Amino acid sequence: xxxxxxxxxxxxxxxxxxxxxxxxxxxxxxxxxxxxxxxxxxxxxxxxxxxxxxxxxxxxxxxxxxxxxxxxxxxxxxxxxxxxxxxxx
Length: 89
Hints:
Elements: H1 3-15, E1 18-19, E2 25-26, H2 29-32, H3 41-57, H4 62-65, E3 72-74, E4 80-82
């Protein structure tokens, strides 16, 4: 792979990083799914599942590297809900 392409891909990936209030950098799976070339969420979910297994097999706590996080969407009523979840009442 050419050096320029590697830098371009790395910069694009880093540009999609988010930061927690404590400064920790993270990426949401749905945000990077397309960056990694997966059009269908189901296919990408299989990759994430295999990555979790590799993490566990290597002796690292899966929850430290793959926390279950839901992207929240603000609703007109003033409440919020998970992006793929049900509306709140």
